[in-house]
Amino acid sequence: MSSVTTLTSNDTIRLVLDTVEARNPHEPEFLQAVHEVLESIAPVLDTHPEFVDGGILERIVEPERQIMFRVPWVDDAGRLQVNRGYRIQFSSVLGPYKGGLRFHPSVNLSIIKFLGFEQIFKNALTGQGIGGAKGGSDFDPHGRSDAEIMRFCQSFMSELYRHLGEHTDVPAGDIGVGAREIGYLFGQYRKITNRHESGMFTGKGVQWGGAEVRTEATGYGAVFFVEEMLAVHGETLHGKRVGVSGSGNVAIYAIEKAHQLGATAVTASDSSGYVLDEAGIDVDLLRQIKEVERGRISEYAARRPGATYVEGERPWRVPVDVAVPSATQNELDADDARALVANGVRAVAEGANMPSTPEAVEVLQGAGVLFAPGKAANAGGVATSALEMSQNAARQRWNFDDSEAKLRGIMANVHHAAFTAAEKYGRPGDYVAGANCAGFERVAHAMLAQGVI
Length: 453
Fold this sequence. Notes:
This protein is α/β, with parallel strands linked by helices. The chain has helices spanning 9-23, 28-38, 42-47, 49-53, 56-60, 109-126, 146-160, 179-193, 217-232, 249-260, 283-292, 298-303, 334-342, 358-366, 374-377, 380-394, 400-424, 431-449; strands spanning 65-74, 80-91, 97-103, 132-137, 169-172, 241-244, 264-265, 267-270, 273-276, 308-311, 322-324, 347-349, 370-372. The strands form 3 sheets. Strands 1-2-4-3-5 form a 5-stranded mixed sheet. Strand 11, helix 13 (334-342) and strand 12 form a beta-alpha-beta unit. The protein starts with 8 loop residues before the first helix and ends with a helix. It comes from Microbacterium helvum.
């Protein structure tokens, strides 16, 4: 018998964490994500010692493949520019790799690995048969012309295409990668491969293979998850104040769905500051400024009577019943969490990936706030991407209402999986532990069944 089998689950987890820390010493975001998952799954290992004997932990923390490459392109002034591209293919045990591409100057190996690791469990929770991956570049699309963005995307895809395919790896958008970028990326893939392989990219335009509700899915899904959490306690969103950070896809459509369900979303933000609109954020104006004009959030206050702009601050001091952080990782810290608690927040759902620091999560959970981690609350985007893949494979198109109904059903199932796993493993009401345990259990069973690969 292996000596590992005589260790406790916590001992096994500690040994694996020590190895991960030694192998990835300068990757704080990745280490944070690994700690958050592994430190909550000891009850699963106690119930399934075969996962320890099968080396599931040792394998699941190591990506199946890490791709890093040079992206040379020429700007409008004729100058050569060079960026770095990434694709981390973490796990394909449940299906083809699936996860977005992020174009942002903050992108580095640690961030892409953290996002890819999270994606394993998020995708498992959807029940859609998709693996986990993430990719992107430190390219900043802000201030770049359409022609520059096209040239960058074409160069990026000229390397990445060889690692993609509808049965291999299916990217989507993320921060800095919207409809424009997806169009350029897909076009280059089609040109190079001589295949109109619709299912190899999701988030496409509805007119050329995209799914209805995909644009709205992550924001809508986060609000649907809040609705499910509140329903457990006999509450609804109707009449509640909602605070949202960010002003991209996730934030815009979280605000829209909150309004549709009778709540009032009063904040939105970007890297320069936030706006407060007590009458409720005007979604059409916000969309015009951020999606069409690609302007700053301060312009919202300048054009919306009664709205105020607060420069250089985050919106978490504003009293709200529900908070949906939807900007970027680690944007909500312990001080922010204490401010939310002091102002009576009832629920927090992560619309972005890991936007709350571990200390913030501890404050929120310690105060009895309903807290939904990103791998559960923001799973709506990737779930709808999987629906887009299904439609592409069948050469079908579902209408908006049908697609939204499917999304709502998936989010109810994700909530049920996290809620029941938390109860099963002795952490009732702890959606962090529940989501981690449920997602890990699904992946671990599949890894065990498929052998040591």
